[in-house]
Amino acid sequence: MQNEQSLIQRISRIAMPNPQSSSAGAVRLGMGDDAALFRPRTGYETILTCDWFLEGTHFLRKKHPPEAVGWKCLARALSDIAAMGGAPRCFLLSLALPESHAGRWLDRFLGGLRRASRRFQCALAGGDTTRNRKILINVTVIGESRAGQAALRTGARAGDFIYVSGRLGEAAFGLQMLRGSKGLVKTSTPQLKKHLYPEPRLALGSWLTKNRIVTAMMDLSDGLSSDLPRLCDASGVGARLEAARIPMLPNENARSGRGGGANTMHLALHGGDDYELLFTVPRRSVDRIPGSFQGVRLTAIGEITRNRQLRLIRKDGAEEPLIPGGWDPFR
Amino acid sequence: MQNEQSLIQRISRIAMPNPQSSSAGAVRLGMGDDAALFRPRTGYETILTCDWFLEGTHFLRKKHPPEAVGWKCLARALSDIAAMGGAPRCFLLSLALPESHAGRWLDRFLGGLRRASRRFQCALAGGDTTRNRKILINVTVIGESRAGQAALRTGARAGDFIYVSGRLGEAAFGLQMLRGSKGLVKTSTPQLKKHLYPEPRLALGSWLTKNRIVTAMMDLSDGLSSDLPRLCDASGVGARLEAARIPMLPNENARSGRGGGANTMHLALHGGDDYELLFTVPRRSVDRIPGSFQGVRLTAIGEITRNRQLRLIRKDGAEEPLIPGGWDPFR
Lengths: 331, 331
Fold this sequence. Notes:
homodimer; 331 residues; alpha+beta; CATH 3.30.1330.10; Phosphoribosyl-aminoimidazole Synthetase, Chain A, domain 2; 2 domains; eight-stranded mixed β-sheet; four-stranded mixed β-sheet; 9 helices; globular
């Protein structure tokens, strides 16, 4: 049987060597003390975000590979940093595990987490561990952005174009495939990969913010129909979406896949976990938006309206209200 | 039934009005966006710490008043800030609740949390909520201390005196009383109060650090016999404790109380949850330590040794090894 101290030592091994620990924007003191110390950069604000990742709610012990759990618990918290246009600096990992998962499962989990940590240059700075029957994860990410420059949800104005990155509904489709499969899965399709190993759009968020192109931005975690109303609400505006413009999987993909019969329009509107960026751009800046950024498509899908309603123009031209149907743990 | 958005609105009501939100060391953007924004002070480092507070492990739904759960989940995370000698700035609350507890229980929980937040000047900046069968809490606290000035665990040197604040074993005694009682309890004794509403030693930690009196410091959360070895290990030293000097409850207190027959020496050595400070002071600075600080006793209980063993001198003068017997979720 191992004690908490040895568990902490195993976890702390994934912390990155910190060659610039005396420089700004770096972890000055990592795991092993009462708290971590972070040295902020002059002229920057600190971005703070935390995210639950719970067995049974956000992942399934018997379906999700431990590596994917490790990657995704950090990646989804990083998506909030991307949504502010910031750069990640470090993170805290709170982990509660059953004794049975403190061996091989933990090693594989830490492997996935380490990969995400290195890939997105976000160093493990500290955390807390305890024992629990179910696997509980909470990740806090600390990021930075130049003072006053972070992208908020509040700046959208009537007439702004609404954009999304990537293709919507892919992760939800991947989840359907996962649910339909037997036992632990491997990454076999792009949709499954998007569900298991999402890529926070950090470079895109940073580029849009630095160049002051966006008036409002957020990440899509609960589904477009749930998240867009939040952006509109924060900005005091409404929106009109054009269904035909929303980038999504071709329908034959869904019909032929193991997800079986999924309606790709439904997935694109209501599916969660895409971690794409949703942002608004004033008309005068629209020509500064490229068709794609580092291989990720950028698509105008509608327009912000003064009228605070949310409307969807269907492919047949008929208009209907956009009803939130995305992920909400309390619904 | 309520949704996540309305839950977040209720929680966000406990956020403090932020009159100085444009000034340094303050929350510039609180709940309601993808992440919070914090404006660090120039010349300061950021202190980061997070803490689990789980039903069944750290508190009992049927025994602990919701107000105490709210107070304590923040207070114990703040104790880590005290241990670094820092000042708290803001916190993130991650909360997972059963539907049944999203009403009255949540209100009372938020009441206790708000009291602690105001008392210790630590503003709610953000968080994450979800639904779960058990009540899960994780708190991240962000603090600050002057660059290079934070008290670490690593600086203890042979010959330093070992000090503790307050009286040890009181909280563990309070827990015994709680366990022996029927149903939800009220705060009826100082020991119960110490268990339910611990006071992080922020002013003391800050004073000791500012005046550069301590060589090493940490907070006592798992019990002296578990925590002192961690400080010694980090500093590469040993320690000799004198049992007779350890401040604890008088034994008749324990015998007469509902805790029934508790050995106060055992509680003082191994009882957790005291959130007192453990710190080391070079001999030459010992006369700068007052007998008490703001009503909290400060007591020298032993000495740091070059020899890396941990020894306890019993009241009868015999010496024995100090064996960790405190709280460890993995033991």
